[in-house]
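Entry 14. Structure prediction run on the chain below.
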Amino acid sequence: MAIVRPLRGFTPVIGKDTFLAETAVVIGDVVIGEGCSIWYGVVLRGDVNSIRIGNGVNIQDGSVLHTLYKKSVVEIGDDVSIGHNVTVHGARICDGALIGMGAVVLDHAVIGEGAIVAAGSVVLSHTQVEAGSIYAGVPAKFVKKVEPEQAQEINRKIARNYHLYASWYTENE
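Output returned:
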């Protein structure tokens, strides 16, 4: 069973039809929407500030979400996919975005709707990733624009796939 721990007067809120893997850790001021999947080894540390996660989000194995005390929060929109071993620290990720495996997104960065952050990229603090664009590298830079609707549809398909994968884990419960 996942660790879901109240802290500093905040109790995590988990939306209906959300899968929490047995080794996931959710602490403090965290609100997770409906139909999400929080995979193995994920840590959502709402100990020093808030983490808000929309509906249909998947946060894949080994990812960590955290914030700065009284300075930054994490906001994740709907239908977002956060790949394996991603760090999101005090950033906002808008609807339908995809954060590739091993990427790092730092405080006050904003990832626009339907945007893609390539695997292994580092999005520096205060970076604004345009909606429907691909950013890559260290530090992450603009690579190309894609049609926002096309990018969002691809990213939402990935998010829906993870909803399916999560259902396999809850079938026998």
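The radius of gyration is 15 Å.
Filed with the rest of this week's runs.
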